UniProtKB/TrEMBL annotation:
<dbReference type="InterPro" id="IPR011146">
    <property type="entry name" value="HIT-like"/>
</dbReference>
<feature type="active site" description="Tele-AMP-histidine intermediate">
    <location>
        <position position="173"/>
    </location>
</feature>
<protein>
    <recommendedName>
        <fullName>HIT domain-containing protein</fullName>
    </recommendedName>
</protein>
<dbReference type="InterPro" id="IPR036265">
    <property type="entry name" value="HIT-like_sf"/>
</dbReference>
<dbReference type="Pfam" id="PF01230">
    <property type="entry name" value="HIT"/>
</dbReference>
<dbReference type="GO" id="GO:0047627">
    <property type="term" value="F:adenylylsulfatase activity"/>
</dbReference>
<feature type="domain" description="HIT">
    <location>
        <begin position="77"/>
        <end position="187"/>
    </location>
</feature>
<feature type="short sequence motif" description="Histidine triad motif">
    <location>
        <begin position="171"/>
        <end position="175"/>
    </location>
</feature>
<dbReference type="InterPro" id="IPR001310">
    <property type="entry name" value="Histidine_triad_HIT"/>
</dbReference>
<dbReference type="InterPro" id="IPR019808">
    <property type="entry name" value="Histidine_triad_CS"/>
</dbReference>
Length: 187
């Protein structure tokens, strides 16, 4: 069990209850499915641990809230960026696609690639045969962006689909991530 997975497996109540203490480390015992166990002493940073839980919960809550209005046709923040109502750092643009830097980057290079016309394509799960061309153009634009950013030798494309994937803007978009070693499995 990876340490990251182990931290995710620690019940929130343990972290919350420990936050009031002056503990410098947590002693954690992890037991695998074949009943082998390992004890780890992990550094304890109460604020950092609480922030991780809080950020994950906030992201999930925001995604669920965004899903409620997903298909109402109202302009999204991306529509406002396309119309230049909201400033962005544009990396690539053609007649059908716009790519710009994410304001909350998860990697040294984090670019969002979006279709300029939504056409009902609020998420990949809503794709229809009429969207085949734009889906291909989005992927090709992602390759151009990776090339321009100097990450063609290693980058990742991520599409969050729906609230369980923490999609927060219902205008299909690709995340182009790179500039660091990616890990597997993601998420």
């Amino acid at each position: 069990m990876a340490v990251g997975n182990l931290m995710a497996a620690i019940p929130f109540s343990l972290v919350r209850n420990s936050a009031a203490t002056t503990a410098k480390a947590l002693l954690v015992t992890a037991r695998s499915s074949n009943h082998n166990s390992i004890q780890l002493t992990l550094p304890f940073h109460p604020r950092r641990s609480l922030c991780r839980v809080s950020a994950a919960n906030n992201e999930e809550a925001a995604a669920k809230a965004a899903a409620v209005d997903a298909d109402n046709g109202a302009p999204t923040i991306f529509d406002k960026i396309i119309n230049k109502e909201i400033p962005s750092s544009i990396v690539y643009e053609d007649e059908k696609v716009l790519a710009f830097r994410d304001v909350n980057p998860q990697a040294p290079v984090h670019i969002l690639v979006i279709p300029k016309l939504r056409d009902g394509l609020t998420q990949l799960g809503k794709a229809e045969p009429k969207h085949v061309d734009i889906l291909g153009q989005l992927l090709y634009a992602a390759k151009i962006v990776a090339e321009k950013e100097g990450i063609l030798d290693g980058f990742r494309i991520v599409i969050n689909n729906g609230p369980k994937a923490c999609q927060s803007v219902y205008h299909l978009h690709l995340h182009v991530l790179g500039g660091r070693q990616m890990k597997w499995p993601p998420g």
